[in-house]
Amino acid sequence: MLSIARTFFKLPESERLKIYSDDPSKPTRLSTSFNVKTEKVSNWRDFLRLHCYPLQDYVHDWPLNPPSFREDVGDYCTSVRGLVLRLIEAISESLGLPSDYIDKEALGKHGQHMALNYYPPCPQPELTYGLPGHTDPNLITILLQDDVPGLQVLRDGNWVPVNPIPSTFIVNIGDQMQVLSNDRYKSVLHRAVVSRDKERISIPTFYCPSSDAVIGPAKGLVDQDLPAVYRDFTYAEYYKKFWNRGLATECCLDMFKASSTV
């Protein structure tokens, strides 16, 4: 998968630009930074964004180069979805909920998309980020990264490197899991820094509710002693706030708290 991503970003610019777009509603698009329409400072990143569930609805829009792209990436997406379904079953059980609660009750028809992130060498890495500190707006993220360090997580007020371990995934809890668990699980504040000398590839898969799914704390996790921390909302409403506010705000969960008037 990393080889496919690297090959794609080494294609001639004219080939890659065939799918360039700064329209976030496009399910397949090449772009740069995060949201070039609203940002005052750009991030040092190019990315290919792909929607991938249901696979048959999107794969026909994916790049045809490299020639094996659709088959290889499609197989990868299917395998990662299987991993996610096993993880959310275990998380449901850890919360004292039925094992199929998150899968069957919380996500609607489900959604899955991914990014192939390319961070080129940066002559002045201290002046920018690959991506600034943020939490993921989705449910859970499965990250594949190459052997170049770049991912950092915030722990006890300090940014801690998450150095790559070959043939492993990083699993990030996202904002929707924090809501569903009524704050028992916390979304992870993380960022990507860039290297002066080396390019870096990372491939996050974002598993999320469908746009029309109504998200809120699981009823089994709410009582008089532990009231609901968040109000109910659709995932479409949440993602729109996230996209419009951008990454500079780190996290927009506070806007959806039960006591919030925003």
UniProtKB/TrEMBL annotation:
It comes from the Eukaryota. This is Protein DMR6-LIKE OXYGENASE 2. The lineage of its organism: Eukaryota, Viridiplantae, Streptophyta, Embryophyta, Tracheophyta.
